[in-house]
Amino acid sequence: MERALELARQAFEQGEVPVGALVVRQQELLGQGSNRREALKSPLGHAEIQALEQAGKSVGDWRLGGATLYVTLEPCPMCAGAILQARLERVVFAAASPDQGAAGTRLNLLDYPGLRDRCQVTAGVLAEEASSLLHDFFLRKRNNLTRDSGEVAEPG
Hints:
With 156 residues, the protein is of the alpha/beta class. Helix content is 39%, strand content 19%. It has a five-stranded mixed β-sheet with strand order 2-1-3-4-5. α4 links the parallel β3 (68-73) and β4. The chain is globular and about 45 Å long.
């Protein structure tokens, strides 16, 4: 998770929502990514998607059975679907996502009854660090928007 946080910090510095992800199997790093939606101008630029694509290319297969995804923010429904499609064994995430979380917070696609594929989930690993980074990012963004518009920021 430390490496995922490092990737999230890099995204932060590039003006992206600070989320980092990596795919590991048998202690081998298969792929990694950070949010790149702004840079790619794509709704598919999530950290998890970047990491899964890189992992698939590195092993030469879209099936990533036995692998674990480490990510700094709970996956959204799109990413949860991709995780299931990739046949990941496990997801470990840091901060919960109350609005979009699809690994148990808002809904649980990774262990949804009736779906053929399921995935083990471990939540809250280094959650405080990841949450703090997200909070700082959105605070900075809010302050910059407020400063640019001439409005006064309300404490938040």
